[in-house]
Every structure is written in structure tokens, then in C-alpha cells.
Amino acid sequence: MNPLSSLDTPAQRLAALRGQLALSGVQACLIPTADPHLSEYLPEHWMARAWLSGFDGSAGSLLVTADFAGLWTDSRYWVQAEAQLQGSGIALMRAGAHDVPDMLGWASEHLKPGARVAVDGRVLDRAAALRWQAGLEAAGVALVLDQDPVDAIWAERPGLPTAPVFEHLPPHACRTRADNLAAVRAAMLAHGAQHHLLSSLDDICWLLNLRGSDVDYNPVFLAHALLDAQQLRLYVAPGKVPDALATRLAADGVVLRDYAGLAADLAGLPAGTGLLVDPARVTAGTLAHAPQVRLIEAINPSQLCKSVKNAAEADNIRAAMAQDGAALCEFFAWFEAAQAAGERITEIDVDTHLSAARARRPGFVSLSFATIAGFNANGAMPHYRATDTHHAVVRGDGLLLIDSGGQYLGGTTDITRVVPVGTPSAAQRADYTAVLQAHIALARAQFPEDTPSSVLDALARTPLWRRGLDYGHGTGHGVGYFLNVHEGPQSISVRAQGRAHQDMKAGMLTSNEPGLYRDGQWGIRIENLVLAVPALQTAFGTFLAFETVTLCPIDTRCVVRELLSADELDWLNGYHEQVRAGLLPLVDSAARDWLLARTEPL
Ligand code: ZN
Ligand code: ZN
């Protein structure tokens, strides 16, 4: 019997890892949650932290020494991590709590000078690697990037995904591969670079009008790309690109190479050649293969290009939003009828029915993230996910929060609605109205083009701040075009303050999602996607406004009408007029009745 296959529990795996550390002569091991593409959703092959610790939340890093093991994760996951780490011998380190040092701080303080910390450099972004190197060096500790102690003990490590690659075609694809390549090449040359390395999957998919299904929710495939003035070498596992597609790619100067062939090609680049990389989107381990090049560090040009949607994309997005809204009408019509009939509905049922309604719409490909359906106290956890073992029945009085979205060939959606169940309390209605006012404040904003997106955050919060209320997450994230639901570079969040490339430009698609959370009681978030559009040209320049493109009624039964100003009421009624007109052609029977009832003017 292979002794390695008996590593069934986190405690056993931890012991095996410590044995491996001793063998390799390192005193600590850092295990981040990442893959060589620095993706939000990881293939199982790269879920080392979850395999070792038993904690399967989407964020967290593990640090293991001979006599300590700690998992750092943020407040979204404290409850889950505490439960899943039971009996593992791993301490929960509440990242962000005032008395908890960050991981690097802990390592610098506790490791002795001369110690070595191993981390799989293949999954550590360059920016983080530099930060760790500098921080540890100050404590006399070395960072070792070329060892993966986990791999040595993970006998049954899953292989890499093998889903086929497909082409995003017109009319849904609204730019040609040749144009995209030309735009990125022009930026590459403007930076003085002869080569450009891309590891981020959304950038590669966008650049080549290709999509895949290697991970959940994001329609991407595992690949790297190396671009020069003549060709683009696409590193992808053999067999994933169908022959006919390979021929089409070749016509645009795209040469297919084995996924594992990147290392040798990087090593073969001429000494001193300028290699453009985005330090947040390429790993230290990947770059270690090209020590001879001259690195030119800047944001990936494709990030900037794809954040601004063109007119044809905007039209397709509006159509996808209408399909998505029609699915929501069907779902809510079912939900209200089932409620009225006294059926037992769980948070899981909400997800199942809503996902099925989406799947019936034309152009639907997959969900864009895991549905969040949280009733009352569960809605107070912004990243709550109902599971087969832990979920609530939606009954009694209160608020049900549903945050969900879909991938359509013509766009990516993300919408949050809160609906009353039974009779919500006066306090719940007051909170709901305040969040609606925050949502409307941003929806109605007008601001100079190129305003830093972080500045807009305060506009949404003002109606809440006025009442001494606030929320702990950002107000808006960029959204891809049949790509990742979380994209940059714009970010309507104080955390983006001072960050480069966050200016709001016409054509950017962003979420508007203020919220309010009463721990252990209820949570509210109202989310639409908004497209930045030119509104006004004056002596002071171009001013932008937001076109709300999400189409779905915002429940008015929880609104305290007297709290709304005339302008706010106008916005809400105007929005519902638009929702009704947009969705009426797409729904019938019960969904149609529901749409008409829920878009009545207030
Ligand atoms: Zn959302
Ligand atoms: Zn969102």
C-alpha cells in the first residue's frame, strides 16, 4: 500500500508536509490560494490550501512551520473556517482583525534569521513575491520560490482540466482578433517592449476571441500567451483546440504550443529583450524562466481595452440583460405563487429554480458565480452560500436576499434583489429604503469623464452616512463581456483609492451594489449593472452618466415612500417603466402578470 494515500485528514496531511519541510531543509511553507494564471476560480489541481487544511472557502493562505500552522482569511470566511479547521491543528488567523498580524508580519517576527520559507513560485504573483522577499530579507529570512513541498505529498493530486476551447463568434463577438492583436501590439511597442507575456485567462480569451470551460463560472481556458510583433504563441494543452479552429488562429498569426512549453520559450528569448508584463497578473515562478530579459512592468493593455465596451457590445449586453430579467420574472412569479400556496421553500430551492429559469433563456451558457440566496440572518453575510447541510427555510417574516448572475454569449450579468417574505418589520423597511436611496444616488450620478472610480463610492454611501449607516464592501466592480464577472481596472471602492488606471471612461460596465448588513439579523443589497455613457459636453469637458442596463423590478413593497425625495421617486418609477417595456415582449402567463404587478408606479 502506498503510505501517501493514507493521508485522509488535514492533521495527517499537515504532519506529512512537516516531514517534507524537514527533508527539504526549509523552516516554513507558505501556501497561497492561486494558480499560475492568478485566477479567481481555481482548477482542483491548484487547490492545495483546501486539500491541506480542509477549509474550502475561496480566499485564504496557509503558513506552516514545524510547530505552528495558521490559516489567514478575511471576515467573510471566519465562521466557515472556524468550523472546517476543527481538529486540524491549524489556527484560524482572522485577517483584518486589529490584534492579528498579517502573514508576512507574523513570519518576520517568528522565524529565526537564517530560516528559509518555501512557496510555490508558480502561483505567487510577481508583486507579492517582491513584497515577501523584501519583508523577509529585513528579518534575515530567505524566500525559496522553486520548491513545492505540497506536490511531494499529494499523491492523488487531480490533473488539469481538459475542456475544449471554442471561438466567440459574431454577432456576439464584436471585435476581430486582428484588431485586438493590433491594439495590444501598438501598446507593447509604445512601452518599448519587443515581447509581451500574458498569463491571465480573461486577457488571453478577450485578445483571441476564444472561450473555454476549464473552471467554474468564468468561461476561460488554461493558457499562457507570448506575443511579439509577428506572432502570438498560445500555450495550451494538446487536443484542446479543435483543428479547424487552429487553422483559423494560424491565419491571424497565432501559433499553438504545448502548455508546458512556455518555460523553454521564455528561456530562449534574446538577452536584454524588452518583455512587457503586468506584475499583478504574472507569477514569479513563470518569470523565473526568463532572467535574461529586461522586464517592462505595466498594466496589461488588454485590461484597458476590454473594460471599455463598444457600441455593438453594449447592444448585445442590453439584449442579454433583457433575457436575464425575463428569467428573473419567471423565477419570482414561481416564488411568490409557491409562497402563497404555503410550499416549503429553502434557500437551495431558490438557487435551483432561478438557475433553471436562466438556463431556459437563449444565449445562456452558465452561471457567472455561485448564487447567493440568504434569508434574514444569512443575508447579513455578503458572501453567504447555502449548502446541502447548512441552509435556511424561507418562511415567517423577513427579507430574502438573492445575488445571482449568468454568462450569456452576448454578455455577463450580476444582479441582487431583496424581497419581502411575510411581513417585514418597520426597521427592515427603513433599511431597505436607505439602501435604495444609495443605489439611486449612484445611478443618477453625473461626473467628469476620467473621474477616479473610487471617488464615486462616496456618492452611493451619502444617504447611508447621513443616517450613521455604512457597509463593508466596495460599491461597484467592473464586469466582463461574456467573461469574468469581476474585472478591472475600474473599481467603485475606497480600496481603489490612489490606484492607477481606475478612471471611469465612457463604455465601462460596472456594478452599482450598495448594501446594509445587520449581523445575525438581516442583510440588504440592491445591485444593477450600469454602463458609463456621455451625458453632457460643456466648457468644463465631457460629463458621463450611468445607463442602468439591468432590467428587473426593484421590489417596492419594502419602500417607505415618504422617505424618498421627488427625484428618487421619479427615478424608481422611470426605471420600472423601462423594465416593463423591455421585458414585456419576453415573458408570458404568470411571469407577465408578475412583471406588470411589480412595475406598477409607486
Ligand atoms: Zn452580485
Ligand atoms: Zn456584483
Helices, by number, come to 18
Give unreliable regions as ranges: none
CATH H-level homologous superfamily name of the largest domain: Creatinase/methionine aminopeptidase superfamily
CATH class of the largest domain: Alpha Beta
Using the CA coordinates, give the radius of gyration: 25 Å
Level of helix content? 25-40%
Which CATH-level-2 architecture of the largest domain?
Answer: Alpha-Beta Complex
**Count of separate structural domains:** 3
Largest sheet: 6 strands, mixed
How many strands appear in the DSSP assignment? 28
The outline comes out as globular
CATH topology of the largest domain: Creatine Amidinohydrolase
Q: How would you write the strand order of the largest sheet?
A: 4-3-2-1-5-6
Give the amount of beta strand, in percent: 15-25%
Q: Between the first and last Cα atoms, what is the distance in angstroms?
A: 71 Å
Mean pLDDT across the residues is 95
What class, by secondary structure content? Answer: alpha+beta
Description:
The protein is α+β, with helices and mostly antiparallel strands. The chain folds into 3 domains: 3-153, Creatine Amidinohydrolase, Chain A, domain 1; 166-299, Creatine Amidinohydrolase, Chain A, domain 1 (3-Layer(aba) Sandwich), CATH 3.40.350; 308-598, Creatine Amidinohydrolase, CATH 3.90.230. The chain contains 18 helices and 28 strands. Strands 4-3-2-1-5-6 form a 6-stranded mixed sheet. Strands 12-11-10-8-13-14 form a 6-stranded mixed sheet. Helix 4 (103-110) runs parallel beside helix 5, helix 13 packs across helix 14 and helix 15 (426-443) packs antiparallel against helix 16 (453-465). The longest helix is centred in the middle third of the chain and has 30 residues, at 311-340. The protein is globular. The termini are far apart. The mean pLDDT is 95. One zinc ion (ZN) is lined by residues 403, 414, 416, 527.
